[in-house]
Design goal:
Length: 258
């Protein structure tokens, strides 16, 4: 069960991991209270300054309810995957896509050691059925942190097929796993002549016309409409059991992820 709680976190370091991805290492305050979930794709909401030079503040708990009883302004917040978590030290790593516009992306671009943000306890969705013999991970670049962590935590008896969409070869990352891994990078992320939008995740899904035999599990993460179209392909065209698919809309083209 989700346990609501909020924390301050101080930036230890921030910088480009690849041209399109900024890695931020955070020290979470009072991390003894932080409750990791059991999901390898777990995410927190990062909270930023409400603007006007005001510091980030956290909701408070009163009589078992959370609210802003001190009248502090609410802070813009966005979901980000916990790429790494060390419960013994309270150090957290998050990887943020450096896209145009957006509170979180702009914050990441200018983040410096000592900056303070807020975050909450994590939650997650990735949950392969116990009998899954193979797993298909299909994401755009926003799902790459989840893919990285899922692969690192994957048991070696499983076959994993991974398709990740990034803007360019320089955005590929070294992904390690004990599992039998088939990894394909697609360099189709972003607007370009001949493309029908900022992501081709739906087209990548449609290019998969066969799934392995035996019980499996499909995890999809990326732009919301593309992720939904990808899910539809596996469910309706390939006839795959929809209860074994988790498709998460990570961002919405043209809309803030509030
Ligand atoms: C469960 C979950 C986990 C996530 N994990 C990660 C993660 O680990 N790393 C990560 O980078 N993102 C992750 N995201 C996606 C991230 O929360 C969104 O991209 C979010 O919109 C970014 O906030 P922002 O303030 O930068 O932009 P917003 O204010 O939300 O949006 C402003 C504008 O930017 C556009 N936009 C938003 N994101 C992108 C993008 N990636 N590329 C191009 N345009 C964009 C919007 O369409 C909008 O027009 C995750 C989302 C979810 C739901």
């Amino acid at each position: 069960m989700y346990h609501e709680d909020y924390f301050f976190a101080e930036v230890l370091s921030a910088g480009h991991l690849t041209p399109s991805m900024i890695r931020v290492r955070l020290q979470v305050e009072d991390h003894g209270r932080y409750q990791a979930s059991d999901h390898a794709d777990e995410w927190v909401r990062l909270a930023f300054s409400p603007g006007g030079g005001l510091p980030v503040t956290l909701p408070q708990q009163r009589d078992g309810r959370w609210g802003r009883f001190d009248g502090s302004p609410s802070c813009p917040n966005r979901p980000y995957t916990v790429r790494r978590w060390d419960g013994s030290t309270g150090e957290m790593t998050v990887d943020l896509v450096a896209h145009e516009g957006g509170v979180a992306a702009s914050w990441a671009t200018h983040a410096r050691a000592g900056d303070v943000i807020g975050l909450c306890n994590p939650e997650g969705r990735y949950e392969p059925p116990a009998d899954a013999q193979w797993i298909l991970l299909l994401t755009d670049i926003t799902g790459l942190p989840a893919v990285g962590r899922i692969l690192e935590e994957m048991p070696d008896a499983v076959t994993v097929i991974v398709h990740v969409e990034v803007p360019a070869p320089a955005d590929e990352q070294d992904l390690s796993s004990d599992a039998a891994l088939s990894l394909t990078w697609h360099h189709t992320h972003g607007h370009a002549a001949g493309r029908d939008g900022p992501t081709q995740l739906h087209a990548i899904a449609r290019s998969i016309d066969m799934l392995p035999d035996g019980p499996g599990y499909i995890y999809i993460a990326g732009e919301a409409r593309a992720a939904s179209a990808a899910r539809k392909h596996f469910r309706d065209t390939l006839g795959f059991d929809k209860t074994r698919i988790d498709a998460v809309g990570y961002w919405v083209e043209g809309q803030a992820r509030v």
